[in-house]
């Protein structure tokens, strides 16, 4: 997958639609503006990808301001979603010295109801990953420490029967983590927990056992759950590939096999024959991201072409990288869906911060003359 010169402008254009950030250093610091969706302008899933995309920009341009943008976005999320909805206090259990000990709210617009605010395990683990990548990129241990603090705080609320041979998990908890709002177990939640908690612990130090107990509890679920995996949902399939590609264990390769099988079936289904106005863009972008991360070593030409075809369809619809007035993207161009669509499009276009191993290469004339092949060594180390 060559990182061609036309990708970066599209990547930046999509991100600008959400965050309106400076691309050159200024004397004043940048504060993330409220997005058009999310309570008080912040939504945890969207902003997690926002952080990762800023880290990608930092790595491929070698501009420090993008690293600072990532840090500013982290601060904005913690000061909003780490507090009660009226922002009067930290979430229960958290404090100024441990601001993530109460978890992080989703950022749903409604306080209650079937689509009300609360906490999702898969959003929280994605945020932990973003903090971990920020820690690795910046060399600042505090961000991985924050992720570990968040992991410790939320784990006993989402997982129950933890001492049994097969623990169970809730999919959604209340904002204060006191009661489950959705009692069923997410398809990927145990896998996300196992993979991300292991990543946090490894970053903490080679001999660290800071999350050993939690990791073993997740592992007892994963050992049985992966064998029955199946899905027909674009985003679920994509995130399954993304999560599993971070591990080399037998179960992870088995999960990738099953996801690849289901994607083959999905590709032959009616999904991609439907108009873009009848699909959700961010779910398609999640699939493209997962394919680039998880299947890049398997028939690379076929899978790269398929992932790129997903992005091209949405570009031609007029949704991304900027929404055209004559778009054919239906509800995807509405204000409440635009932020999540834009950040996930950018991540699928250049999955720098989201991919474990990479075949990206930087060409001498890829950007302006200040970018040489020496930058690739930095970028490859990040992946």
Q: What would you say this structure looks like, in words?
A:
It comes from Trematosphaeria pertusa. InterPro entries: 6-hairpin_glycosidase_sf. This is Six-hairpin glycosidase. The protein contains 13 helices and 5 strands. It is mainly alpha-helical. It folds into 2 domains: 7-227, Glycosyltransferase (Alpha/alpha barrel), CATH 1.50.10; 229-354, no CATH class. Helix 2 packs antiparallel against helix 3 and helix 6 runs antiparallel to helix 7 (212-225). It starts with 6 loop residues before the first helix and ends with a helix. Mean pLDDT is 91; it is low at 357-383.
Task: Give the SSE map.
Layout: H1 7-19, H2 44-61, H3 64-81, E1 119-120, H4 121-138, H5 141-158, E2 159-160, E3 168-169, E4 172-173, E5 180-182, H6 189-204, H7 212-225, H8 234-244, H9 250-268, H10 281-294, H11 300-316, H12 338-349, H13 374-382
Antiparallel strand pairs: 1-4, 2-3, 4-5
Outline of the structure:
By secondary structure, the chain is mainly alpha-helical.
Give the key terms:
2 domains; mainly alpha; three-stranded antiparallel beta sheet; globular; 383 residues; disordered C terminus; single chain; Glycosyltransferase; two-stranded antiparallel ribbon
């Amino acid at each position: 997958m060559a990182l061609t010169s036309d990708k970066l402008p599209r990547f930046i254009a999509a991100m600008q639609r959400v965050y309106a950030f400076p691309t050159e250093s200024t004397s004043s610091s940048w504060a993330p503006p409220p997005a058009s969706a999310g309570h008080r302008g912040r939504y945890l899933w969207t902003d997690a990808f926002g952080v990762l995309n800023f880290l990608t920009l930092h790595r491929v341009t070698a501009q420090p301001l993008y690293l600072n943008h990532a840090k500013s976005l982290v601060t904005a999320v913690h000061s909003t979603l780490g507090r009660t909805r009226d922002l009067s206090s930290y979430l229960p259990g958290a404090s100024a010295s441990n601001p993530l000990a109460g978890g992080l709210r989703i950022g749903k617009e409604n306080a209650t109801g079937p689509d009300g605010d609360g906490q999702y395990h898969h959003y929280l683990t994605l945020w932990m990953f973003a903090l971990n990548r920020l820690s690795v990129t910046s060399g600042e241990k505090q961000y991985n420490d924050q992720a570990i603090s968040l992991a410790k705080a939320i784990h006993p609320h989402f997982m129950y029967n933890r001492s049994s041979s097969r623990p169970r998990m809730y999919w959604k908890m209340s904002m204060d983590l006191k009661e489950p709002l959705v009692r069923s177990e997410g398809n990927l939640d145990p896998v996300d927990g196992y993979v991300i908690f292991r990543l946090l612990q490894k970053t903490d130090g080679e001999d660290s056992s800071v999350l050993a107990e939690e990791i073993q509890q997740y592992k007892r679920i994963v050992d049985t759950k992966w064998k029955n995996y199946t899905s027909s949902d674009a985003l679920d399939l994509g995130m399954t590939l993304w999560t599993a590609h971070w591990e080399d264990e037998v179960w992870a390769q088995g999960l990738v096999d099953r996801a690849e099988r289901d994607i083959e079936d999905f590709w032959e289904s009616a999904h991609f024959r439907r108009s873009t106005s009848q699909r959700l863009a961010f779910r398609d972008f999640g699939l493209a991201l997962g394919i680039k991360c998880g299947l890049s070593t398997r028939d690379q030409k076929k899978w790269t072409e398929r992932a790129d075809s997903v992005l091209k369809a949405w570009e031609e619809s007029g949704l991304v990288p900027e929404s055209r007035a004559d778009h054919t993207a239906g509800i995807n161009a509405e204000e409440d869906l635009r932020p999540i669509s834009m950040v996930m499009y950018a991540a699928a276009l250049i999955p720098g911060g989201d991919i474990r191993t990479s075949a990206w290469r930087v060409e001498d004339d890829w950007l302006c003359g200040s970018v040489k092949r020496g930058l690739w060594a930095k970028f490859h180390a990040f992946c």
